User: What shape does this take?
Amino acid sequence: MKKILVTGGLGFIGSHTVVALQNAKFDVVIIDNLSNTTIDVLDNITSITGIKPEYHNIDLRNKKDVQQFFETKKVDGIIHFAAYKAVGESVEKPLDYYENNIGSLIYLLQEMNQRGLDNFIFSSSCTVYGQADELPITENAPIKPAESPYGNTKQIGEEIINESCNAYGLNAIALRYFNPIGGHDSVKIGELPLGVPQNLIPFITQTAAGIRKELSVFGDDYPTTDGTAVRDYIHVVDLAKAHIAALQRLINKKNNKNFEYFNVGTGTGSSVLEVITAFEKVSGKKLNYKIVGRRAGDITAAYADTTIANKELQWKTEKSLEEALDSAWKWQLKH
Ligand code: UD1
Assistant: This one.
């Protein structure tokens, strides 16, 4: 059984990936400092798969603790989710973002290099493309200057990994996520935003549940079919499976280059109003919303060309936007 370290394994995407790894018969070790999640997620994963993953509460900014962990653990691969991810907050606290997102990455790569470990999967983001000139967005689209420190940590992160792969012969894959939403069918794990949600889907479900008065739709004057911004919303369970595919590609030495990157999306763009309509259909609830001005930093449209990911990873999404929204709604109702 291959042992895989999952950093941030108790977070939103991390927990779904741990379940997928266990289902694919990997032995999972989780590192998570609980900075944006709670320990019950460990029990909830266990109750889905019947296997309790090994868990360590380690802060990856502590180089000594990271070293100590690897002194006793030999792993066959690392999936690195642990990072801060709030765009607005990153503008207010850039150094926290660079220390956490870049510091942790460097310590992990150093340990891998020094101990001869290999197979690294990195959580990247479609934010690296900014507003792409052509849609759908292929992996060959140019990287645009980052709009936020958060986005910059993803760009710099990819560069650090690429250079480390070149210098030390490590093998790594960056997965550039589009907009991950939804939750596991069991309704035992899902997205747990702290405070007022910044992302669209948790804001929609909280509004429908009466926690928020109304959703503000940020802008209806974009050059899109209905004027609202377009994104590629991917079910987190499909996204989790992309990590298994990427890991297997590295373990089986099927990668074409030391460092590769793939778009992980559905290939379909949906406008904010289309998402609202789909949500109203699956939930049977009328959503209270109003159109307001654009949100600073938002782009018009982003959706993936998934041709390369589908072919190289032998992976594709299976779930619809409606299924994703239905799972997000069921998760909301449970809370
Ligand atoms: C955001 C980040 C992105 C990050 C991702 C992580 C920005 C500019 N981008 O993506 O870098 O990787 O989250 O999940 O913050 N919307 C509303 N009302 C709301 C909330 C959102 O109309 O209350 C709209 C937004 O304007 C956007 C769409 O819904 O058009 C999706 O927004 P969101 O869920 O925040 O994701 P992104 O902005 O695409």
Q: What stands out?
A: The first strand starts at residue 3 and ends at 7.
